[in-house]
Amino acid sequence: MVIASTSELHHNEIRPIQVNGIELIVINLAGTISVFDGRCPHQGSLLSEGVLDEGVLTCRTHGCRFSCISGRSLSNSTSGLKRFNSVITNDQVKVDLAEILAWHTERQPIDRYNVTAGTSSRSLEQLPGPKGIPIFGNALQLHPSRMHLVFESWRRQFGPIYKYRVMNRPAIAIAEPALISQVLRDRPETYRRWDGLETVVKEIGLDGIIFTEGDTWRRQRRIVSAAFRPERLRSFSPVLSAITGRLLKRWEKEAVNERSIDILNDLTQYAAEVITSFTFGAGMGTARSDGEAIHRHLEIVFPMINRRSIAPFPHWRYVKLPADRKLDRAMTSIRTLTAKLIASARSRLRQRAESDSHPTNVIEALLCAPERLTDDEVLANALSLLLAGEDTTANTISWIMYFLCRHPDVQMRLQSEVDSVAAAVGDADTLDAIDNLRYLDCVINETMRLKPVVPVSSFQPINDIQLGGISIPGGTMITLLTRDTSLYQDIGVDLHTFKPDRWLTGFNDVGNRRNFGFFPFGAGPRLCAGRNLALMEIKSVIVMLCRNFDVSLAKNECNVEETYGITMRPQGLHVRLRPRHK
Questions:
Q1: What are the angstrom distances between the C-alpha of 277 and each of 272, 373, 381?
Q2: pTM, rounded to two decimals
Q3: How high does pLDDT run on average in the chain?
């Protein structure tokens, strides 16, 4: 079977290939062509999005390293890559289809929760779960802003696998790390996003890469992920530093006046400017003004998507309430602003010389992609990236600041680390310096473990499946309790307490992250494409904070609550900043 031509395979490049729906990669290293399994054996991440350097392929998810010639693992924490036999005939790279199909069949995951041979699996009806009411099931119990807490309370009552109903649809909730990992790893072939959420998202025009499925997702993913490659992120670093510098000036004024700061509001504006600049490459003044305008409208969108996705009846299609009209106005404004930025990007591309047509930002990558996207697809992807890039990052930084306020000893230790690195390299805002902040990584990981921005997520199997010894019909909603699964493990350690030091030990091992249910950016092929940009933003702000301020909760502002709206945000978080005296 022919999978590529040698003329298309450039030196030191990873070429993704699909054979009968199976992900492969082809690598040309100094004329030696190798064909490997396209997914990392650790968590199934797409290796086509990895990095090649001096004959080593590094997975972008957890840094697993492999030889580009043999596929041998250069990391102790994972197995090697499957290397398939290939031959080259008349410029054509050929593989044995039978070998690939046989290997794919053999590697299907073994369900360690499944029933033993000779016994029947359980049905959904045999699972424990909360009682509902006729017609509505458990829908009325799922309060939109506290939905994740309801799911977690049911888990404590009924165990890590239980059933519930939304209207007339049966559903299952899972808080077992291995099963969650399996569902995430087997997307998009076996599982897809829950269609209730997908329908709502499409109605308001946000069906970009984050919410698309199947071949549409594969086509768009290749384009968008290329914009997040390390060299693009590194070139964006000066812009990020400038935006962080403006946030510093704002906070310096607030600190002098000893004002109580609505920190989430400041950080969402910051994140909006960052993602607007990264996506559209607009001038700094334009990105700042457009980012602020987009931020005002985007804060309405996620909560409304959440409310509509679990609504017993889609009333907005017939009678629109004030909240629905507010959402319509917000989306109209967002589309107008985004369309303006896309038109500006088109104009810049037309004015460039043909030899200088290499994309410099996400929107240019979408507009210049060989696989032509429609105007609607370009707009939907831009909107999706703006929405996801603003809310999730701002929430994570806010939760980190909350924990620093609650744990002054952690704050002091982090300040000391930042100061020491700054003294050693001269400027702790550089990417290289930030990478040396090991304790900062621990603080970030521990925050994302206890306060993940997506504590629950819902999918559905495309066809009838067996999962965890349970027969699940195709189309059944499967809710993954990705926060809860890292809190209730019978391992003899306190997992409810904020302890960054646990990440300095074996808890941080690649294998343990999965075993303990640590999925802050998802897992498998659909790992968040913007993960590394988000971490750059988080580290940039926290380093700036630690170098310049002491942070504490504002007086009488101690009742910080988790509010759910697709993402989990800290409600009522107000802080005070005090300049550090060095």
A1: 8, 21, 15
A2: 0.85
A3: 84
